[in-house]
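User: Structure tokens for this complex, please. No commentary.
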Amino acid sequence: MTGVLVCVKRVPDSTDEVVLAEDGQSVDGRKSGFTMSAHEECAVELAVRTAADGGEATVVTLGDSDAVEQLRSALAVGCTAATHVQAEAHRFGPADVARELAAVVRDHEAAGQAHDLILLGNDAADSGDFQVGIRLAYELGRPVVNGASTLSVEESADGPAVVARGQGPDGLETYRVPLPAVVTVREGGVEPGYPSVPGRIRAKKVPIEERQPVAEPTGPGRVRLTLPPPLPSAVRILGEGRAAAPAVVDVLEELGVLSR
Amino acid sequence: MILVFVETDLEGSAVGVSLEAVTFARDLSAAGNGVPVDAVVVGTVSDALRQELATYGVRTVHRVGGAAVESFSGAGWASAILTVFEATGSIVVMAAGTDRGNEVAAHIAARAAVPMAANVLSFSGLAPFVVTRQVVGGAVMEEMKLHQRPAVFTVAGHAVEAKPAAEHGAGDLVEHEPEVAAADLLARVVSTDEPEADLSGALSSAKVVVGAGRGVGGADRFDDVLELTELLGGTLGVSRVVTSAGWRPHHEQVGQTGSRISPDLYVPCGISGAIQHWAGCSSAKTILAINADEEAPMVTRATYAVIGDLHEIVPAITAEIRRRGYAG
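Assistant:
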């Protein structure tokens, strides 16, 4: 029985055009819609699979009231409990978020709910800080593996351990770390789950633990967000359809990428 | 002093993004009354590496060695680098904006209880120290204050061009073999499998990449794109739509949650150029886009473009390449 906590973030679904809030402090996602970071969709799937040994997969987020949508998404694909820290996410820096998540873990564990394995995404799709999981590990005094794409929990003589694998600079790296531990997940090892109709119905019925932050945030140090100036298009259209092939090969010859 | 964590590859050479970070550190030093730039390397430091770092203006190369840091652990390496930091009194600790650089920097910042800025592009002030960094996959820039010391940050790939210094540094070697607490070695790499020849690493260093996106239309419709890839001696890279649909494996994905590429030539076929994808291919020198939609962001940002059905255009290109006698 492995108790797993997976941490997710509601982020703007920035596919094409990014719009900034007027105060330059956040991305305005009202037009684009919102989603969960891609790495976290995989972390949720790994949490559900790991807890399938009879444990509980709890999902937690820090965000405004709309962030409950991301908790419901995780519940719909198999998480069994959810915690919502009500806060304006853009006012919280990575160290603030780590402190709030650590408080959730401590409170849950004091109430008898162990989170042996804590999963996060490697980096958030919006703020791209690359550090919340690592800071959370230090808050809790636990080891942390970064950027794993697959993992499993194995029993050994020394107790349960997580075996995590991820792509490193020199090849596929394997870690074997005693629980409790923190692992940040990178997309690519598992397919995110797709919610079934019964899953969606179940998700609506799960009560969500609502809580307030334990401390005032020190903030992300953000002065302002800006959009890079749009580059003037300098594209040279070589033609349309197959008739353009000779012009394309002329370019390839100029670039010197063809060999005999 | 500015301390730069320099990553090395399997041959013991400095990785490109680390040399860019050293170049960035030199610019910072020049703005800050010439504070010295030192490098810290974990593992082996060859004479060639020491000399190369000297040509980049590095004053001292700190080598961190010993059994504790032989295999990678984020906490263990950060702890060892922090002993160098403490011995030298640095005010800035920097790394490359690679996966490993960001990881080690995050450990350093967490241990030192200071903020960290990932993927910095430039700095605009020293007091207070303000950096501009990439967020939202590079689609947005964030100005961020790093008011505490040490200032910890990583430099985004291609933020600056790696350039040797006008005046070489001494490049003196100083050896360190710090003790690392057992708790910091709990999460360490226990084994590394050599990458298979055609897996991810090939993409990030490829000179020519042929891209394939939603426009390809199905898992069984890649033959023409693969043939073009082979004729150009390139590597196939795909968009997230393609891997999410299960048409191609994830290790071929280019983008914010895949590989970052910087080829001389990128030929995206049927890829619209969403932010997720652009984050991984914006460093390509030349882009030749093949797309049905002339308004697609990939087309407007490309150097060259052909408009139309890729399944008509790509076979016509490969036929023309063969007609002119190139065998690939």
